[in-house]
Amino acid sequence: MTRNKLALSLAGLLFAPIAGTAFAQSTPATTGQDQSQNTKQLQTITVTGSALPRVDTETPSPVTVISAQQIARSGYTTISDVVRSISADNSGSIPNAFTNGFAAGSSGVALRGLTVNSTLVLIDGQRAASYAVSDDGQRSFVDLNTIPLAAVERIEVLKDGASSIYGSDAIAGVVNIILRPSFQGVEGTADVGNSQHGGGFTKKATFMAGTGDLDKDRYNAYFSVQYEKDNPIFARDRDFPYNTDNLSPIGGPNPEVPGNNIGSTVGSITNPATGLLQPLGNCTAGSKLVTNDSKNPGSYCSQNLANQYNLIQPQTEQGGIYGRFTVKINDTTKAYLSASYMQSKTWGINQPEQIQNSTPVNTNSITLPVGNPSNPFNQPAPINYAFGDIPRGTNYTNHNMRLVGGVQGTMGDWNYTTTATINHTSLDTNQFGYINYAALISAINNGTYNFANPSSNSAAVRASLAPGYAKTSTSDLDSLDFNANRELWDLPGGPMGLAVGAQVRHEAQDDPTLNPNFEFEGLGNATTKGSRDVAGTYAELDMPLLESLEADVSGRFDHYSDVGNNFSPKIGLKWKPLDWVAIRGTYSKGFRAPSFAENGSSSSQGFVTITPPTSFQDLHGGNAYSSSPYSISEYTLANHNIKPEKADSFTFGVVVQPTSWLNASVDYYNIRKSNVITAPDYGSALAAYWANGGTVPGVTITPDLVDPQHPGALARPAVLTGEYINANSLKTSGVDVDIQGHWDFGSVKYISELQGTQIFKWQMILPGGIVQNYVGTQGPYNLSSGAGTPRTKGSWSNTVMYGPVTVTGTLYYTSGYQEIAEDVGVGPGSCLFLNAAGTAFMPSNCRVGSFYDFDLTGSYDINQHVAITASLMNAFDRKAPFDPANYAATNYNPTYSQAGAVGRFWNVGVKVKF
């Protein structure tokens, strides 16, 4: 088989960084017989998205390879940070900073913005068990925090549909984390780091040791251990606006004022007879006395809860052990067994629970009865209070245990691999400080809780109000895979390759209820339970029709015990009209089987923050009831008749390597997904309700309590209820650009890598032909952390190596977006976050700015065994753009600009290798 210069150079580009000879490909290209001989010496590799081993790593599908050396030069120390920095990762991904979400304590990747459930994450080409809790109570995904980075050899990111090989979920692409097949020697690292602005001190260490040479000793055994602990960063450690919910200094709402947002002020009550605010007791616990407020005559206690309790970064602790033993049975057969245990802990705290809540039981107008010791009035007294003496939060501990064994060998003309995987996860969730409704009413009626002097309450009284709740959620994946491949007959371009494979697996998830019997106030609910068996078989043909033309055809048939059968085909073509140019393209059909949350014994209740439209405010005279942002509940039930999602996608790209030191690719992608599983059209339901109190089919709206100042006017919606449905379709398209160059100037070597993604279109098509446009906006807002869909995302990395010194600077960029979201009824001409007057206050044009940050990393080799490492993340101390509508953090978007809230951060460490 012959391959031209482009194929060989790309193979060198892939393997050179791994082998530590980053510039081996700069040698002159060979042709004819010499080239053929060089080709035979190259190691074959199975590239993600194909079941066939190949020398030519440049397939018809676009694949990005991130080597261990590139990971080290990035300064990132977790799989989550590395994968989520990919430019193709967009809306629907899950950041570690989002501690109030359903899937808090985890991190997930969403290529093409199609949410975490449409990106398949593999480890060594094998599936992994999903996180035990579903994102938004709906979407299953693999938690990136439980993959051992210390043992990673490279990460391959396939930015194309791959259901024809892997089956369900591989619609937007595949992230394949490839661990070292063997290791010899001893290697260890130790690092510490801290934030310039306070908080976030981190310490981490890795250790790896291995022995045995497969060729000489016929075995290799190694293990790796890693540990990292990151301290929390509190909002109070950062400047305005990340440290407060009070945006009145820039014209926004102030939730510390009772008249602006009932249920937000600590320790104050409203006297219904006079309308004056009077504190029950002294303003303590960080609150302050405010008098003669223009909007609220009288006095009240004001407290900046966000400053005291909100987190920029939760405290996390991650660690685990991975080991692998490989034995060479004979010259053509080897077997291995690997085992890992990874643990990830997240400690999240929240603001104290408010006595006012709209769900599960509406307590916004709760009163202290006459005779209650805390009520100094001769009539029932509405109370506005937060339980500052009862800490509130949730702690998560995720355990991931994985055992994989396999045999690889040759039998006749066939090469075969068989692999067995057992993967079990267990997530312990411990929540504290949430108020039990029945206990609250009892305490109010019996006067057992002292609201005027909380310090006098006993531990027993506090425990009765907030008894806490703990649950353990689990997920399992057990699979058996078999793959075989061989060469068939020669074609003009070389031998035809055939691969066949089969897989059987068992999947299960058991996530108990988050809020049993809806007993805790202000807490959503979700429960998921389901299991199924899956059997699949696939085949792939690689046909070098000419030396310049290659065709790849594959297809997979799957049977699911709960949703039936599916067939997914794919065809790819690669044409090289010139020695240094390749034109490639693919067309594929993909699918995603419903998650257990969508078709099992499951339900979920989430909250989004909205501001009523001006038309509704006019009906209520623009008072606080109608103009303040508030949380609305969405309660969605599983549907046993739900069908799988289907997708059609194609890519078209060009790869060029005009010189030995430059490689570039441009790839267009277009994905259309149908049968999209979604909650009912809550956006249209809200629009109909705001208009005239109307409804839409499939959605039930439960109104809030009436406005006491305008009891005859339409009440606010409080709860929206419906089942998951196959109602929508979506379209997205865009382009990926990858440019890699390297130059050797003798004693100085220079590497430059540019990666970018531009989204042209991201549309959701609703029943009736209604089209919602998300690209360049904060929609879909009703998704995960409400991060939105920036149009452009990219990075540019530059590395200089001079003797023992290596320095890398990487610039990351994410474009801005309009603060609108059509999925919650907020489109052009309006804004997600408004001031009390119902207008956008800042940014004045209702647009969140772009964000970039620059990371600087370096290393110095003292000798061949010891190196000093250092990094300066967000070196220019760029601030995160102001985003008051994002509900995952305080006034910024942690999905794209977490580094801007953390600020400048330094790390120093040492690496030892023998």
Walk me through this protein's architecture.
By secondary structure, this protein is mainly beta. The chain folds into three domains: 5-232 and 314-352 and 393-433 and 468-602 and 638-679 and 724-913, TonB-dependent receptor, beta-barrel domain (Maltoporin, Chain A, Beta Barrel), CATH 2.40.170.20; 237-313 and 353-384, no CATH class; 603-637 and 680-723, no CATH class. 11% of the residues lie in helices and 46% in strands. The chain is built from 13 helices and 44 strands. The chain has a 22-stranded antiparallel beta barrel. It has a five-stranded mixed sheet with strand order 3-6-7-4-5. Strands 13-12-20-19 form a four-stranded antiparallel sheet, with no helix packed on it. The two termini are 39 Å apart. Its main location: membrane. This is TonB-dependent receptor. Keywords: Cell outer membrane, Membrane, Signal, TonB box, Transmembrane, Transmembrane beta strand, Transport.
Main sheet properties? 22 strands, antiparallel, barrel
Strand content: over 45%
List segments where confidence is low: pLDDT < 50 over at least 5 consecutive residues. Answer: 1-42, 259-265
**Helix content bin:** 10-25%
Mean pLDDT: 88
Outline type? globular
Distance between the termini: 39 Å
Task: Please give the radius of gyration in angstroms.
Answer: 29 Å
CATH architecture annotation of the largest domain: Beta Barrel
- Helix/sheet category: mainly beta
Beta strands, count: 44
- Given the structure, what is the number of helices? 13
- When the domains are counted, the total is 3
**The CATH class of the largest domain:** Mainly Beta
CATH homologous superfamily (4th level) name of the largest domain: TonB-dependent receptor, beta-barrel domain
* CATH third-level topology of the largest domain: Maltoporin, Chain A
Organism: Dyella nitratireducens
Keywords: Cell outer membrane, Membrane, Signal, TonB box, Transmembrane, Transmembrane beta strand, Transport
InterPro entries: Beta-barrel_TonB, Beta-barrel_TonB_sf, Plug_dom, Plug_dom_sf, TonB-dep_rcpt-like, TonB_rcpt_CS
Protein name: TonB-dependent receptor
